[in-house]
Amino acid sequence: MLQQLANGVFQGSVYALFAVGYALIFGVLDILNLAHQAVFMIGAFAAFWILTHLGANMVVAFLGSMVVCGLLGILLDRVAFAPLRRRRDTHFAGLITSIAAATMLEALAQGYFGAQDNRFPLDAVPSRIYTIHGVVILQLQLIILAVSLLLTIGLTVMLRATRLGKAIRAVAENPRAARLLGINVEWVIAESFFIASALGGAAGVLYGMLYSFSPTVGHDLELKGLAVIILGGMGSIPGAVIGGFVLGLVEVASIGLSSTSNLRDAIAFTLLFLVLVARPNGLLGRRAVREA
Amino acid sequence: MGGLQNFYAAHQALIYFMGINALLALSLYFTLAAGQLSLANAAFMGIGAYTAALLTIKLDAPFALAIAAGALLPALVAVPLGLPVLRLRGVFLAIATIAFGEVVRIVALNWGFTGGALGLSGIPAKTHLWHIALALVVTLYVLWRIRGSRMGYAFEAIREDESAAKTMGINTTYYKLAAFVLGAAVAGVAGGLSAHFIFFISPNDYGFSQAVDILVYAIVGGIGNFLGPVLGAWLITLIPEYLRSAKPFGVGAGWETLFLNGLILLLVVLFLPNGLVSLFGRFRRRPAPAPKAEESIVDVESAQA
Amino acid sequence: MSNLLRLDHVSRHFGGVRALDDVSLALEAGRIYGLIGPNGAGKTTLINLLTGLLPPSAGEIWFADTRIDRMPAYRIAALGMTRTYQNIRLFPAMSARENVQIGQHLVTRTGVWQRLLWLGSARQEEMALQGAALALLARVGLAAHAEQRADELAYGQQRRLEIARALASNPRLLLLDEPAAGMNHAEAAELAALIRSLATDGRTILLIEHNMGLVMSLCDHLIVLDFGRKIADGPAAVVSRDPAVIAAYLGAETAPDAAPEAARA
Predict the structure, then answer these.
(1) How many angstroms separate the CA atoms of C198 and C206, rounded?
(2) Which pTM value belongs to this model?
(3) CB B113: neighbour CB atoms within 10 A?
(4) Chain B partners of A273 at a C-beta cutoff of 8 Å?
(5) What is the ipTM of this complex?
(6) Which residue among C42, C89, C103 sits closest to B161, beta carbon to beta carbon?
(7) Is residue B296 within 8 angstroms of chain C, CB to CB?
(8) pLDDT tens for residues B258-282?
(9) Is A39 exposed, middle or buried (0-12, 13-18, 19+ CB in 10 A)?
(10) Coil, helix or strand for C66?
């Protein structure tokens, strides 16, 4: 039971980190960035490349991957979202272009790395195992949880306390007013993308430390990420974090109900569906009201 | 005539797929024409495919009946699904339909009756080209007649400004549901027909990535006009063929096709927002319908002083 | 004869904001009513409540002896109430004629089945409806622009198109939300003539406007809102001299029935 709790928490920490990037972009732009999962995937592959081609250690790979993904995020905005900002159908079109971008990223990864599963080199990944009160915990899991929490807390602090964070929140609230206050909205959006994508990439690296990954690894997480942000409330960062942990726990708990991983997913999706229908604002979400 | 027959024999599968994909794109057109972004049509296709296939395999049902059932069951499912879900706006509707699709896929994967992960095999070969052509023609005819009718105007109004439409006496819930159900039925027919020429179906054939494919057909072709989705479906279906013949190895054009699909989709949305069909001048009058910036998740009016 | 429209102690809150506060009023058929008040007084909220886009937080609304405050908007429209919008909500990609035809939804008989079967009756009605739409466009002076896209029309033309669209279902009660906003003197005068002609059909009109010249020349009866409350309700001549009304608008400077230029809010 405690074991399940622990596993759920660790699982949830990766979901939470992933979902936070989703939520940030949605909060700022009111656009669902379906390319976020592709950035997640690139994060894993970027770290993989750094480890295998540059012979660097995990820390370097992790940070390097975050930077790469951050920059990728800015590129993504420039190519897939920025040209649409003035359009009347900006949300709908943005959804489609993000799908297009994700497809292209996935194709490129497949072309370069192949379609098979990959793992990080074993010596790069910590492998100690602890047993506390009869609960088996991998050192790896602890590291993942710690990193994940660190990044999420860092983001929350940044949003609350720094100038950039306040600018981001202003733009998320009302871009027109923010512009009038002298905030360079485009710059803020670019930085939001950098941060969100860096976090998404980080989630990818953490995921890759636990599981194998292929260019399609993002698909599964994409849908779960959606479930998480709906559950936690679109655009709410704390909601995404809580939602991520809830999903992790629900998934692990439902192993007791059925050993098939699929059925667990079905439960997650049914939950998502019910939340959407019954309580569309999720647990913590603000209403997605945006002044035109 | 021999040349044509040879061509047909060599490319039969391709032509069949072009027809099926056109049907799927049209099924999505119904919902998009009423301003709803639904990603449930792949799941509806799957329900139709399984229904029809199970009828022919287990009950040796006549083909026409199997296909009719394949249209009916998705339509019936669409009603209780649509009622709660169509209240949601834009992206949230899309997500709810994605969730629905995943649940259907997972149920099919785990249900012995549908063959579980192994799917259904040994489906008899019953589909001829004329079946597909007939389905296409009927669907196009219906869409043609809807345009300019009370229902057609209602769809357009809902798409452009749903709450203004309500104040004109349009029962938006009814029409959105009608579009949703019609789309489901057409997708079901496509499923039933395709099952009987690919002989083997499994739940993963009807998942999220297929739903995205259908969306790509429709967007690339353009949704200002009902011929757009057909055009888009044909183009996208032909790309791997073209790539296959262009590459010396004839390797299934895996990642290149994927990349090209993504690129085309991106370019179309950025530069040709009304799809390829808008290149034909006389269709230019109807630009792409666009759900407006969402005001709230559920269809509730925001405050006006 | 009972009232055409009746509001009983209607309120509408948004969080802590009382957009409408205990408003009661009654409209009789065949008159032109003006709904006036400073910006933010709750006029558009009231229209939204009437047309069913918003439910009231309290109170009842009755239209032609039917209770409508919880009714879906499309049913209220079917009872004979249509509206235009303060910020013009036409269907931009459709032609003027098509915009009007959408307004004909409630008076269209043939459904899609008759069209699928290509019945003659469908074609007949189609022609009749088109003719009616063109006639309406002619009535508002837009006959020449029937096939033009709505978003290509001039501002004043768009306003008139919205009115034509609202008329297409032959409503008993027509709600006009600031139809003269942004119009110059001449355009407003033309609009006044149009609105007057609509009322002679026996239609009831509720007009929200800031243009006092227009209001005074058209309306028999004025209802004044301020901060969500009704502060006056009576014949135009009486209300316009009501000190509370004058105070609400402009302090004590200008009476609402002063020369239009001076009173333009």
Answers:
(1) 12
(2) 0.86
(3) 9
(4) 96, 99-100, 103
(5) 0.86
(6) C89
(7) no
(8) 888 899 999 999 998 888 888 876 5
(9) buried
(10) strand
